């Protein structure tokens, strides 16, 4: 993407967040920008619109997608489904963990909701590769809920509540657009968010002291999760992304040593 894509017409409202994410990452991470465009195109094509402007926009989006694909033709994170899914998940988890760490440390700012919202969008890209795993779907709901919760707190002039809190996640998600205002970011906000997401990709999970006694066995769900994290770490090493490999391995160890059940 040599130039950012214009915002889509109102008839393609569902496409807008992914176009925004693609524009923010077009120079920092062309692979994620490609998958954002890909998902945006999927959403647009499945939209029952007969509007001429919408159809013309989709043609422009498809042209951009083809151009990006040609430039990334030798990249496994675009041409290989398994590698692509691992790359997208690794990136999405980095952004989510970075925003979550910021929130749990009580250091949320007015940009933290946008980081959580961006994380939810990146996690949603995993729908491209199949049905979302339950823990991924929960992270999307949580990220959207935290985005609304923190934005609402700032709007009301109070300090956001750090970490998980009570409340109906679906109800809060419905209030998201009202709490955060219009979906379109200003140029300054978009540039800031892009810089912050680049920083978040190096963030590591918080350390938690291990229990005295480790679990003797894992249920099927946790066992599958550990295997997936280990494969993700191996894929990250293949891409020489050692920080992501460390994050994935730490998450696997947290499960194996009983520090988490997610």
UniProtKB/TrEMBL annotation:
Residues 15-156 form the Vta1/callose synthase N-terminal domain. Coiled coil: none annotated. InterPro entries: Vta1-like, Vta1/CALS_N, Vta1/CALS_N_sf, Vta1_C. Keywords: Cytoplasm, Endosome, Membrane, Protein transport, Transport. Pfam families: Vta1, Vta1_C. GO terms for biological process: late endosome to vacuole transport via multivesicular body sorting pathway; protein transport. PANTHER family: VACUOLAR PROTEIN SORTING-ASSOCIATED PROTEIN VTA1 HOMOLOG (PTHR46009). This is Vacuolar protein sorting-associated protein VTA1. Residues 157-185 are annotated as: Disordered. The keyword Nucleus does not apply. It is found in: Cytoplasm; Endosome membrane. Belongs to the VTA1 family. Residues 221-257 form the Vta1 C-terminal domain. GO terms for cellular component: endosome membrane; multivesicular body. Its main location: cytoplasm. It comes from Kalmanozyma brasiliensis (strain GHG001) (Yeast). It is a peripheral membrane protein.
């Amino acid at each position: 993407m040599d130039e950012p894509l214009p915002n889509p017409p109102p008839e393609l409202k569902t496409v807008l967040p992914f176009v925004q994410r693609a524009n923010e990452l077009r120079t920092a991470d062309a692979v994620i920008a490609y998958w954002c465009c890909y998902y945006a195109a999927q959403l647009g094509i499945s939209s029952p619109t007969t509007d001429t402007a919408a159809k013309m926009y989709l043609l422009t989006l498809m042209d951009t997608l083809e151009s990006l694909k040609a430039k990334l033709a030798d990249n496994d994170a675009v041409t290989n489904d398994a590698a692509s899914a691992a790359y997208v998940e690794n990136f999405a988890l980095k952004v989510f963990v970075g925003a979550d760490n910021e929130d749990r440390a009580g250091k949320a700012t007015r940009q933290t909701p946008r980081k959580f919202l961006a994380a939810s969008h990146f996690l949603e890209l995993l729908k491209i590769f199949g049905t979302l795993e339950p823990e991924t779907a929960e992270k999307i709901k949580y990220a959207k809920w935290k985005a609304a919760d923190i934005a609402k707190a700032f709007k009301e002039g109070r300090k956001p509540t750090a970490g998980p809190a009570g409340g109906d996640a679906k109800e809060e998600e419905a209030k998201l657009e009202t709490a955060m205002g219009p979906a379109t970011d200003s140029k300054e906000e978009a540039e800031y968010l892009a810089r912050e997401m680049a920083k978040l990709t190096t963030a590591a999970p918080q350390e938690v002291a291990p229990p005295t006694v480790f679990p003797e066995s894992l249920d099927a769900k946790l066992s599958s999760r550990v295997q997936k994290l280990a494969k993700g770490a191996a894929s990250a090493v293949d891409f020489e992304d050692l920080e992501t490999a460390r994050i994935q391995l730490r998450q696997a160890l947290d499960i194996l040593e009983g520090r988490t059940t997610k």
